[in-house]
Each structure stands twice: as C-alpha cells, then as structure tokens.
Sequence to fold (266 residues):
Amino acid sequence: MIAHGSAASAVMSAAEAAPGISLGEVMAQSELQVRLDRKYLLSGPDFARLAFRLAGELNVLDIDGRRSFAYESRYFDTPARQTYREHLAGRRDRFKVRTRSYVDSGETIFEVKLETPDGGTDKRRFPHPPEDRDRLTERAHRHLQSTLTAAGRRVPLDLGPSCSTAYQRSTFVAVDGSTRITCDHDLVCSNDGASVSALRDHVLVEVKSATAPSFVDGALAELDVEQISISKYCVGVALLHPDLPSDPWNSVLGRYFGRQGRLAAA
Fold:
C-alpha cells in the first residue's frame, strides 16, 4: 500500500501529470540493461520542483491505468555478507544476486547485476518461478556460474537468502528515450523476521542513461541536490545489522535513515 506522505504524494502528482506510455514502449525506447546510474535522495518538495522543471520532457510508465508499482527483491549473499562488504570496499568488479518480483503482475525474474569497469551497470536476467523467489533454482545457478565466470569472478559456494526489500516505484522516461528515471519510496527492508521502514519522507531517484550526465542530472544540479552512492540492499543490511560497518555511507544513513554508522575495522 502506498503511504501518502509528502514524498509519495509528490511522485504520484508528477506521474499523474505526465503522458503515459506502455511497458513495450519503455523497453523499445530505453531498455538500458547496460548503463550508467546516478542516485539522489530528494524530499517531497524538492521532487515537486524537479518535476516542474522537467514538465513536458518526460513520459511515465502506465500499465492498465496504474502508474505506481509494488516491487519486492530478495538478495542472496554469503553468511559473511560478501557482496555487501565488496560494495563497502568499493570493489570495481562487484556483483549482486537477486530475484525481483513485480507484485502487481505476479511476475518474478532472476538477475545478476554486475559493476562494469567504467562504473556502469550490466544486468543479466531471465524469468524465474515466483514460488522460488526465495531460492536459487538449478537454472539460476547455471546462469550465475556462466555470468560470473565470464566476468572473471568465482561463484560463492554458500550463497543464501539475505535481505529483502519492498517499495513503490514510478518510472519516467525521457521523450527522446535517452534517459530513464526510477523513483522509489516507502521502502521496507526485512530479514529473519525483523523489518525496518525507510524512505517515508524522501524519494530515491535513480537516473539511468547510456552516458552521463543527462539533462536530468543537470536539473538536479541546479536544485543543489547532490549525487549519492548507496544501494537499497546496502541500506537494508546496514539498518537491519547495526553491528556491521557502514562507511562510506554513514553520512547518508544518518541524515536520511537515522542510522548511526560504524567504521570498518582497520
């Protein structure tokens, strides 16, 4: 269910005002499976100002009249949180393994998300049985093996279900197809019966394009909104496991998520 705070209201207002396009049009114009991502956290008023500046330059994903969609992701990691710690350390060839469920349609995909040498993102995905969203099937294991081997990485032997994230998303696409913008709010992170809510008062805006910066990044710069480096998975792990180190995200976690960070051991 969508929470009607200022962040959610700002996103919904912008989505209602923009021309709608179908999922097929989004994929044809701006699939961007290999891309550069930039992330920003905006308050509701700042997002409203961004939407005003970009009015007429964006379309919005519309499926059967719906413009806000529920997503759920289950991440897989080792007991020692290898993928979390690789992100923490800034490893350039890091990866994430997850299933993503599109709650409104009932579809699930399996995805390996690779960091590219130039700092971009390369996603390798295929359909996954919804009933198996909390486990890696044999097909998923084969896909993971081939993808990581090609990237020069070994598959961890002890991958298992880790943090889950659930949130609401609206997706905007530049009229010329050059840029896609995902806007996430009302994030809930959970694992082993524990859960924590976040992004009630802010929107996580991800700007995705083949090259950077885009006109959207320019508009954000004019609004004095700074780019951040963080992921929903890392936010979830840090919030659910406050004993773990969380630098270099401590300032973001403290400012936007109320989390007192810990430094990694020297």
Observations:
- DSSP finds eight helices and eleven strands in the chain.
- The helical segments are 6-17, 23-30, 44-53, 82-89, 138-150, 215-222, 232-240, 250-257.
